[in-house]
Amino acid sequence: MQSASATRTFVATRISDSLSARIARDGHRSARVHSVFRSAINLTTAGNLTTAGELVTIAPDDAGGLPNGILFAGVADFRALGLRAGMPVEIDGATVRILDAGLVIRLVIRLADARPWSARMPAADGRRWPARSTAVHALAHRDAHGTDADAATVGLLAMPMARERLDEVSRAVVRADRRAAAAAARPLVGMGPGLTPSGDDALAGMEAALHALGHPAAGFLAVALDDVVERTTAVSATLLRHAARGEFAERIHRLLAALLGNDDAALPGAVERAA
Prior knowledge:
alpha/beta
C-alpha cells in the first residue's frame, strides 16, 4: 500500500493554454491548496499568476479539459494521499509541487509534456436549433426532473424570482443589451446550493450558447462579476469568469456541438454528461 507520506508523481497530459501562458510568463509562483476531493485538487495562487480569487484545478484525464485546469495520466484518490487545504504549493514551468507542513514534497505534477488545450468555445451554426429544441428540452426535463415532475416546482425555477430574472436576462439578450442582461443576471449569481450553484450554472450555459453563436451579447456576464467572490463559491466564481471570456469545460464544448450539430444520436449522451 502506498504510504501517505511518500511522494507521488504524475505526468500532466493537457493544460489550459491560458494557464500555460501565465505560468510561462510569471515563472515560479507560490500557492496554497484550496480544497481536496477524491479525484481533484483546487489550488489558489498568489501574485499575478491568476486573477485574484480564481482557482487552478488538477484532475485526471477523464475529467476532460478545464478552462482553469491541468489534467494528468493515471488514477488517484487525493484524499487518501493525505493532502489537505492550506498545504503550500510551488508552481513553475516544469512542475507543480505540493508540500506538507515540514516542506516535504508530497505530490509532483510534471508539466513538461503537457499539451496545451484551448477552452475557448468554437464557433457553431445555430440553424438546426429550432428543429431540435423541443427534443432537447424533453431530454433535459427527463434527466433533471423525471417523467412526472413539474419543472416549475424544482431546481432553480422553484426559487423566488429566478424565473423572472431569467426571463429578464433573455429579453435583454434578444435586444443585445449587455448592460441590462448583466443587471438582470446579477441576483442569480450564487443562487442555489452546491459547489456551483444553479443560478451560476444557468448563466454559464447562456454564455456558452452566446459565444458559440457569436452573438453580440456574448460576454455580458463580465459586468455582473465585480464582487463575485463575495456572492458564490470560489470554484463557481472561477468558472463564471472564464465563461464571461468565452472559455468553458470540454464537456460543455461537446454539449454545444451536439445541440447545434447534425448527429441526433449524439444528443442524449451529451446532455447526460453535461448534467
